[in-house]
Amino acid sequence: MRKVGIAGVGLVTPLGNRPADVLTAVRAGKSALALHPGFPEQYYASLLPREGACEEHFFEQVSLQAARMAVEDAGINPSDPSTGFVLSSIKGDIEHFGQNDVSLAYSAGNIARALGVQNPPIVVSNACISGLAALVQGMRMIRSGQYIRVIVVGTELQSPFIVTGFQSLKALSVEPCKPFDAHRVGLNLGEASAAMVLQADEGEWELVEGAIRNDANHISGPSRTGEGSYNALRAVLPHCDKKDLAFVNVHGTATVYNDEMEAIALSRAGLLDVPVNALKGYFGHTMGAAGILESILSMKALEAGVVLATRGFSELGVSFPVKVSAQEQKAAGRSFIKLLSGFGGVNGALLFRKGGSL
User: Fold this and answer.
1) Separation between Cα atoms, residue 175 and residue 35, nearest integer Å
2) pLDDT digits (tens, 9 = 90+) for 179-236
3) Which of 352, 110, 77, 135 is nearest to 239 (CA)?
4) Are residues 231 and 184 in the same domain?
């Protein structure tokens, strides 16, 4: 089977835009979460700066910025006919729906054309696993021989529609979130754009295996038995030497039921002795960008030889003794698993491995 590597990455985040700078900020314990005026309630979120930006085209602008960084990092020509493009987002530019044709397909087409991509873009919009699902989609397109390389971009902006939706579910925390903590009360929202260039047989990092599973439990509630996450983990673990697994980067939204579900899934998968961390305390829940953003930071952390701390965590608040990384620790191993879950019972797991040149 064709190996799929990561040839380049790009980030646009409230903590900075260069992966090395963002990693430095996270390792220093910095968070972009802040209290913002609400609709009508106040809410904690990590939002991108808007100074000098055109709000009507901001979604496409930040997506293009992250994509161009990844393309430059990879040193590729996007107009090569063997290059594909995948856009991940849950809501896209939803605040401008009705003003112009700003559907996700429309935005994806604009971004792809601005990059010079010649092939039709693919949109992945599958709740909170969208970023991970987009990476799996890109990996499969390369393995099938459809493309040699695929540019994958995940972007999410917050809006009154999204914020009030989460407020109606009573899911938002009135303070910075605390993943897996006994005193967690909910999630924080975030904005970011993150991009990867996947390429056949190129890169220091390999996408080893990915799995998408749906437990069909509930429109917004996770399975109480961790069924979907467990089955996604079970699909990727045979491709991994457990001794080589440095950590699992979980979804970790800091909602009561999500964290408990992930703890159950990790227990069922036999991973209670593997370090676990969550990054929502730094960026909030960046939704369609989360799978790519958190994977890039996990890659950079492992390159630095560390497991990042779970900001906000102090006391375990789930039923199983998950090894949550409260403080930064030394990493042992050269692979990690990214785990995500979302509305509608969707779950995903993706195994990354660092090696030499593929």
Assistant:
1) 8
2) 999 999 999 999 999 999 999 998 999 999 999 999 988 888 888 899 999 999 999 9
3) 352
4) no
Question: What's the domain range around 113?
Answer: 4-200
SS3 150: strand
Q: In one letter, which amino acid is 242?
A: K
CATH code at position 133: 3.40.47.10
**Tens-place pLDDT, residues 126-168:** 999 999 999 999 999 999 999 999 999 999 999 888 999 999 8
Final residue in a domain of this structure, among 141, 172, 200: 200
| In the chain, beta strands by DSSP E | 4-12, 34-36, 43-46, 83-88, 122-124, 149-156, 189-190, 192-200, 205-214, 245-249, 275-277, 306-307, 323-324, 329-330, 335-342, 346-354
293 alpha-carbon distance from chain centroid: 5
Number of residues that this document lists for the chain: 358
Helix 290-303, helix 130-143: angle, nearest 10: 80
